Each structure stands twice: as C-alpha cells, then as structure tokens.
Amino acid sequence: MKHTLSVMVENKPGVLARIAGLFSRRGFNIDSLAVGVTENPDVSRMTITVNAAEHPIEQVTKQLHKLINVIKITDLDPDNTVARELALIKVKSDARSRGEVMQIAEIFRAKILDVSRKTMTIEITGTAEKIEALELLLKPNVAEIVRTGRIAIERGEK
Amino acid sequence: MKGSEIIIESLKAAGVDVVFGLPGGMVIPLYDALFDSDMRHILVRHEQGAAHMADGYARATGKTGVCIATSGPGATNLVTGIANAYMDSTPMVAITGQARSDLIGTDAFQEADITGITEPVVKHSYLIKDTKDIPRVFKEAFYIASTGRPGPVLIDIPSDMQLADIDYKPAGRINLPGYKPTLKGNRKQIKAAAQAIAAASKPVFYAGGGVITAGAEKELLALARLMKIPVTTTLMGLGSFPENNDLSLGMLGMHGTGYANYAVTHCDLLIGVGARFDDRVTGKIDTFARHAKKIHIDMDPAEISKNVAIDVPIVGDARDVLAGILQELKKMKREPKKTAAWLEQVIAWKKKHPLHYKDEKGAIMPQFVIEEINRVTKSDAILCTDVGQHQMWSCLFYTHVKPRHFVSSGGLGTMGFGFPASIGAKVGRPEKTVIDVAGDGSFQMNIQELATAVCNDIPVIVCILNNGYLGMVRQWQELFWNKRYSETAISCQPDFAAVAEAYGALGMTITDKNDVGDAIRTAIKAKRPAVLDFRVKAEENVFPMVPAGKSIDEMIGGHKS
Q1: Which of B119, B127, B178 is opposite residue A69, by nearest beta carbon?
Q2: CATH of the domain spanning A82-154
Q3: What is the tally of structural domains in chain B?
Q4: Cα–Cα distance between B400 and B395 in angstroms, integer?
Q5: Are B301 and A71 a contacting pair at CB < 8 A?
C-alpha cells in the first residue's frame, strides 16, 4: 500500500542524507520525495511517498523518529489529505499539431510555458493520476518529462 | 580562547577525565591544548583500540567513553569501534580531526567524509562549521550519547575550527526538539503487565543489556523473588541477574543453556526487559516462546514488535517500569504458590540438561580455564572477551553475578574487541581484577595494544584459549560443512608469551591442567600486564548449540551421557 509520510525536520545540513540512508538501509524504496522549508525557517517538511505494508511502515516510522533531527512524522490519511504534484512536459509539436496540443492542455487546465518551432512545454498540477492521464494522451510526442514528487497537506484546521 | 582549548573545556564540562586516542595532522591543535591540561590521555597504537577502550571504559563504569583520532585513516580506523558501540548501545563520543574547512570536498590530504561513512552506525553526528558551536555541540553530544537508548556520537572538527581564537561562552540549555526519550512507562500498561504477571503460572524473565544500562538489577531481582519467576539473560544482560540465585537460568539462545531455552519455549508469559529479540536469541522466529503472552519493556520504541509481536508493550526506562510493576503487584492479591509447579519443572530441566563438558586426559579443557578464572577471582573480576568459542565459554562457565562485570561484543561480534576493551575497563575500574579471555585468532587483531597496556601501566590479564583454530568457524565447518576446515587452521602463530615479554608484559605458556589456577594467581599478583597462553584442546565445541534457523529447543550436543 502506498503511504504518504509528512516528515518535519530541523533545517540542518545532512538531514536529507540521513533520512534517505535510513530508508535504503531498512530496505525501503522511496517512490517520491519533496523537500522545502515551512512557515518556520528552522523547519523543513519532507513529503515522502513509499510503498509498504502496515507493519514495515510502522517500523520505518519508528526508526525515522530516532533520528535526532526529525521532529514529527505523520502518515497522512488519504481521505483527509489534499495532495498535488507538478510536472513539466516537453512535447514535440510544430505549427500543424500546435492547436491540438493546446486543446488537450486546456482540457487538463494545464499551462503552456514555452513554445518553440518544434516543441511546446506544458505545466500541469494535480494528482499523479491526472498527470499520468495527460502524459498518456501526449505520449507519442513527449520529448521530456520532469515531475516534482508529491506534496501533501491535511485538510481543515491544523 | 582557541577552539582546541574550548574542546578541552567542553570535555571537562561533560565530566570527562580520561580520553583514548592517537594524534595526527588534523588534531595537532587539539593535542597541543591537551598537553597543557590535566586531562588523562591514553595513547593507543591503533585507533580501533581507542574506540574499543572507550567502549570498555563506558561498559565498566556507566560513564560515556571518549576516543580521539585524526582525519582520514585515523577516523576510518575508528569505524569498527563505533559500529560495535552502536550495536551494543554503549555511550561513546568519538572526536575526529578533519581537513581545513575550506578544503572539505576537494579530496584533500587525509580527508574522509567520516560523518557520511559512519552515518548508519552512530546515534548522531556533527561536523563543526563554526568554532563558537563547539560548546553546544559537545553538550548535546554527551547528552545524546548517554540518555535514552545510549549510543555513539561522532564530532568531526576541521583543523581551522580548532585554531580559531574566539571568546569562550559555555553552552546554554540543550534544545533538541526532535529528541525526547520516554523515561516513564505508561501507567496503564504497567498495570496491564502486573496483571499478566499475576495471572501467569509459567512466567519467565528475559533480561538484556537494557537492565544494566538502566541500573535496574535490584528491581529485577525484587520482582523475580516476589513472584518466583525464573530469569534468563542475553549475552548483553549477563550480570543483570545473579547467576548464583536459584531463579537464574543463565543465558538463552543459540549457545544458551538447555534449561533456559526449554523454559522460554514452554513458558506462558515472557517478560522481555531491555532486550531486542535478536536472531541469536530467538532462533526460528515463529516458534520462539510460542505459547507465551509477551510483555516487552524497552527504552527504544522501535524495538517493540520489531521482530516478535508483543501483547503488552511498555516504552520507558527499565528501572522505572520494573519499580512500577513491583508496586502494582504489591498492591494486588497474589497466589503465593502460583509458579511452584513451573519452578519444579525448571529444576527438573536443570538436572536433566546441566551445562557439561567431557574432560580429556592430558588436555586443558577450555571450559576448565574459564571455571578456574571464576574460582580464582571468586566471580568478582571484570571479564572481557573477544568473539567466538572462548566468548561463549566465558558466557556459560563463569558465574556472572554483578552488572558491568562482563564486557563483550554482542551485536556486531567484533574479534579484537576484548583486549582493548579490557584496558578501557581497567582504566575506569582500576581497583578490579580485569581479565580478557581471548582466542588465539582474535587476540592478534589488536595485539599491538600490549604497548598501550605496558606503557601506561594498565595491568590487565589476557587469557588466550589457544586452540590453533579460528574455533567457532571451525566448529561450524565440522558440524555443517563436512569437516572441510577451509582457512580456519592458524597453528602457524607467534609464541604469545615471548611476544608479551618483548612488549614488556608478563608472558606465560600453560600446557598442564594443574598449572592453570597458579598461572592466573601469579598474573594477578604480578600487577602488570600479562598474557597467559593456555594451550587448550584443539577441536572442542561449544555446546549446547541451536543450529541456524532452528527453534531454540532443538539443541544439539551438550547432553550428559
């Protein structure tokens, strides 16, 4: 089962390496990872998605807690969480196909960021499924994709 | 004040009076400051020795051990010692020099990313990037190393940080938002544990090193006595419960006593205290204590239900939790003879499956050497060991009665640990007789520390159980690999007594069983470092033994026939 862990850490050098090391050491594969500072500049939040059963996720959470720089870990409940990721997709497209690509982008409420003679770059924000759906539609012409990894926050008041 | 002097001040502020180390280019400033201080420094001959000495010192005293090495190879030489301390939860602070901060990342001379290299084997680590951080970092490091579940903390200090001259301000209050060990056990859980203990008719205590760390041996003894519960200990827990008590089952696990393993297999309640259900203890995990409800008391929440599912988990300090359970039980109605039949069964197992070895005419049996050490020292020595057969015989044939009197590499299983650890133990407890039981293989892994013992006048006694083999591997080859002794025969070896003499220590070779006790007595009286080379029976095995992957009640060997 896929888990989204929201990990608050002290904003100090080496913290990312400690966390990444712990996951690999305990036999977990990180699906995606996004890091950024929070409203408190001394604290960063890592959003880590990982595929694991209940018992191993509990074990890795406990091990994460033992890292001195880790302040708080939440295994986000998918029903009570809003999650987004962002992707930049570069599509091969010339004058003939440009209109079609723009139409598809519009359906997905994606933005066109850059247009060149032979390519277009699209920005899309949404769930992983939405991004994958767009990717599927554009597939034969996709030149490059960059994805951020998921960020997530709990719904409602803190 | 220079950074190097601030380091010394910070060590003093942490209550340190002795450090183990070896200088090198990137710690010259630190050693220069040490030169003027009254800090005792034990100069080692290899940095691995320094780490194990700090470890042995910590285990024997309960204080945090400190070791120092230079950058690069000095630091990497500490790694085994740090990993060893991590696996056995020893409080240790390792200080390493580092290349000048502006050179870090350039593959400078003797530069090694030691915080990176040690990351999986430290409780925490620091790379100092500003001299004014030194007091805070040292205060935090000693706090982290010695509290909660103890462990090693590494502080890497670039040479320019040691040289910078700043105003010294002692560290303020510790602020670690992500580090808050749980000391007090949950009262509800304590009550639940007390009820489970009162309801059990076949309970067993399974005590580990955490009992010793917490100083909970009195509480354990009181609880065992009150409820008449037999106690088995892990290797790390030896000394947490007196083995001369009738309720003692000795050690359990792969080389545990038959009666301990049978008791754990058949108990209806297993009370794990400061132990971590390690594979050397549990054997085949699905059958371990298969009829038992399980209580687990541990400082580290990550140990609860890690390997074995637990019914009553209690996170907290073993002493606090055991005292709480004791209090609860005293308030409750108890059936005084509830465990009587169970104790009778345990006695029957003890009679049927005692620890045993067959004497061989003309040979010195290795087990006999351990028994003689036990007799001569009246079970009162600090016994250190390396890893292998001699270690298991030391576990089994010595009577462990006091905490912090058995110093052995449990989790990592580090050959070469025992001798330097014994030096550290003797530095910490100079009034005690300190004996290192070694193998002829493992002793050679840190034999150079003979110079450290002799030059610093640290009279430890090394008892080599010399069988000319890497004995434990040979035993596995004999039992499971068709006696193909691939690379385990090491009878081509130095004359250990002559080596000892060459270093300035007392050296003796013992080939007659009748001389064993006298040799030990002579070494103790000599009050100087000594090496006793006992030529023991070569192909003797450690029994009983649970083959890898088997249930712990499926032991082989050791039956009295």
Answers
A1: B178
A2: 3.30.70.1150
A3: 3
A4: 8
A5: no
